[in-house]
Design goal:
globular, 475 residues, 21 helices, Sodium/glucose cotransporter
Length: 475
């Protein structure tokens, strides 16, 4: 076992070294803060939509998505796969309703998008809630990544968590968005391959698909065993996260036109839906092979039985899942800090060399800050969905901004964001009273507040709505 762990550890180190080389190569696309955060520069080639689809997927399939889904499947069966599959449904809706509009608007921050309709004060409020949500996800990603990788690599959990965070912060800090694009495409391929390799191994070890079905309770094959309230809550939080996540908007901004933005979103959907149910089936294989273990050990127990080569690929996939999510969070948060705080306060522009230094330093700093909290984090799945719920509140305003920009008021938008932040977190900390998930609270607050502000409004929220700007640009 000791030799196997050394082999796996060496394999993961080689994988991370390759990522570092990619990051260094990406330096040529990070000449200033603008190219650093957008991933584009003069003469750079457009990234194919299929690869941007992998990029979009990468932010949502950290170790919580794979290990956490297998854990839930150990308890509830194949219906646990919905917790990731709903993200695919969200991207499918996003592709037809928002992807092209985001690209044609020409902004690469969620705060700038909402500010077009609701004014500069909303820009700051949006930036704050988005940074808060992204940092929550970072805490859960570090915690789950460290907890899973530590026993597989034979190192201390705290050490695994710290190394995970430091390395991700450094390689994103060096290469910027272009580095994230290239490395997260690699991550996406490794993660996707790793989960299906684990599934193949699990089914083979059980005996066959028929043997798996025969040895698991019939209700575990029901797509609704986890319960409709839970599935709908996942859908609300997950779809909201895809509609209004900083990193998604940044990724969409890297494609050449609205058609490719839509295509990339469809690809993300096609990747995420099978990924979710594959991870759930891994958990069901573990239920048959390792009855009576703690559910969180479902995936790691399966890996422990693999040969060295297979285990290396799957563990590299888990590492890739954590790194992919962390790098997306870091670049997204740093971009918001640059555009909504540093540049307005200092009066500098993105071509200033000090702006590039700031955004690089910010990328490393926001990668390091969640590390302390991650060492204390408990239920990472619930914490992750709290962050998704917070973004669902912003998604309501995004839809209003694009499809009904004259509904509500600027003051109503600001109040919506503030109350959503306080109300959703408060509901989560109270334990979701009456069985009502905090995602529903995040969805309801902006709807109610904007409706009330519209009824008692004094003036329109903007002189020229976003939709009118886009229509005139299309003409």
């Amino acid at each position: 076992m000791g030799e196997a762990r050394v082999f796996v550890l060496i394999g993961v180190v080689v994988y991370l070294a390759a990522l570092s080389l990619i990051s260094l190569w990406s330096l040529r696309h990070s000449r200033n803060a603008g190219s650093y955060t957008s991933g584009t520069s003069h003469g750079s080639q457009a990234i194919p939509a299929a690869l941007i689809g992998l990029l979009l997927m990468s932010e949502f399939i950290g170790t919580t998505a794979s290990v956490g889904t297998a854990q839930y499947a150990y308890q509830y069966g194949v219906s646990a796969g919905w917790n990731v599959a709903v993200l695919g449904i969200g991207f499918l809706v996003f592709s037809f309703m928002l992807a092209r509009k985001y690209k044609e608007l020409g902004e690469n921050t969620i705060s700038a998008v909402l500010a077009r309709t609701y004014g500069p004060k909303v820009k700051i409020a949006t930036s704050i809630i988005m940074i808060f949500a992204l940092q929550i996800v970072a805490v859960s990603t570090y915690a789950s990544g460290g907890a899973v990788l530590a026993p597989l690599l034979g190192v201390d959990r705290h050490l695994a968590t710290i190394v995970l965070g430091v390395l991700a912060a450094i390689y994103v800090g060096v290469g910027g968005m272009r580095s994230v694009i290239y490395t997260n495409v690699v991550h996406g391929v490794v993660i996707f391959g790793g989960i299906f390799l684990a599934l193949w191994f699990g089914v083979d070890k059980v005996g066959s698909w028929d043997a798996l079905r025969a040895q698991t309770p019939p209700e575990f094959w029901s797509l609704t065993k986890v319960g409709w309230p839970q599935i709908i809550a996942w859908l609300v939080a997950g779809a909201g996260a895809t509609f209004a996540t900083q990193y998604v908007i940044q990724a969409i901004a890297t494609v050449s036109d609205g058609h490719k933005a839509r295509s990339a979103s469809v690809y993300a959907s096609l990747y995420l839906i099978p990924f979710g149910f594959a991870a759930a089936l891994v958990g069901m294989c573990a239920l048959v092979l390792y009855p009576g273990i703690e559910s969180i050990k479902a995936f790691p127990s399966l890996i422990a039985d693999m040969n060295r080569v297979m285990a290396t690929v799957v563990v590299a996939g888990l590492a890739a899942a954590a790194f992919g999510t962390i790098s997306a969070l870091n670049i997204g948060t740093a971009t918001l800090l640059l555009k909504d705080f540093y540049l307005p306060i200092t009066g500098r522009d993105a071509d200033d060399r000090r702006a590039l230094f700031f955004v690089r330093a910010a990328t490393v700093l926001v990668g390091a800050l969640p590390l302390v909290l991650s060492l204390l984090a408990a239920d990472v799945v619930k914490v992750t969905f709290l962050a998704k719920a917070l973004r669902a509140a912003l998604a309501v305003l995004v839809f209003m901004a694009f499809y009904s920009p004259r509904f509500g008021t600027r003051a109503g938008a600001i109040v919506s964001i503030g109350l959503s932040l306080v109300g959703t977190i408060g509901w989560f900390l109270a334990g979701n009273p009456f069985g009502i998930d905090n995602a529903y609270i995040a969805l309801t607050i902006p709807l109610v507040v904007m409706t009330l502000s519209h009824v008692f409004r004094g003036s329109a929220p903007s002189d020229v709505p976003i939709t009118e700007k886009l229509n005139s640009k299309a003409r």
